[in-house]
């Protein structure tokens, strides 16, 4: 018998094996100062493109005032206990009702965390006889939820309607054998590529197949649709989404999440969501803060308007300079470049230290080998000056990547990594 930890000692995992070269700088970096368009990284001011504060609410004076007053009034413990036992309040119900109305659903239910809530919702919606059909590029929380499923599951090619159709045929045949139903899961906005899920076309397949649609709209809520109600509103199919999910961690600049659906579905879920039944209630200070943030989403359309002014300026500027942004249809702004992992590390170091630009870096195995993805998240807090400086910086780093500067700079890193 081997020691359980042998595998840990021998294999740190696809990302962990780079810890010596990457930790503290490329991964687990420490941004400092108030959440804003400009923060500090290792003593330098940087333009920050890696904060999901889409509407710029995180550091708004009126938001911080409500947060502080709620913390003073309730502390960080209240209410104590799970919702079903002792942690239920009028304000939790008020927030749920307002969220349901905002996303045009009969009812909603609060979740303590988005990741945890997504996993638990999938688990509660299906039994071993049911079949799950989901996008191969789904977020990790969806994949982990699907892993709990004891029945059959099928993946379809990313945003590929023909592949969805074929897998619904397979799922239908299987469901006829098991006597179960079909749950199809898509994201409203895919957070890495920025593409919207093809919800309108997926909904049209309901004419051919009997399935229910579950949408993770973490990046669409607050940013898409006429009122900000998300991707379903943007595509005109909100009423055809059977279970709608969104998190407070993006546009709401907070912690928590919610699901929304018909009243009977929510009544079932709140009695069967294990992660909520056996976990402490969402803290009151977060509930009060979410009520304030939601009110601002509803009554201040200028926040979303400013966000999209910045999104369009950044994305159009990058495209005009010949950068590949893939097929983004949202605020998420991916910039694809060609290069090795050591080159990517040299490039990002140059970007941060010499140009004062902080954005996220994504490399293999998250994306194919030989590609570098720089992911930018525009917010309503950014300025045209921020955007112009970033466009100039990106032109400079591309030139250095193409003329081999980063390849020469990264030789030592490549040797250490065995590249």
TrEMBL record:
InterPro entries: Aminotransferase_I/II_large, AON_synthase_class-II, PyrdxlP-dep_Trfase, PyrdxlP-dep_Trfase_major, PyrdxlP-dep_Trfase_small. It comes from the Bacteria. One of its GO terms (molecular function) is transaminase activity. The keyword Cytoplasm does not apply. Keywords: Aminotransferase, Transferase. Its cofactor is pyridoxal 5'-phosphate. Residues 45-392 form the Aminotransferase class I/classII large domain. The keyword Iron does not apply. This is Aminotransferase class I/II-fold pyridoxal phosphate-dependent enzyme. It comes from Aquimarina celericrescens.
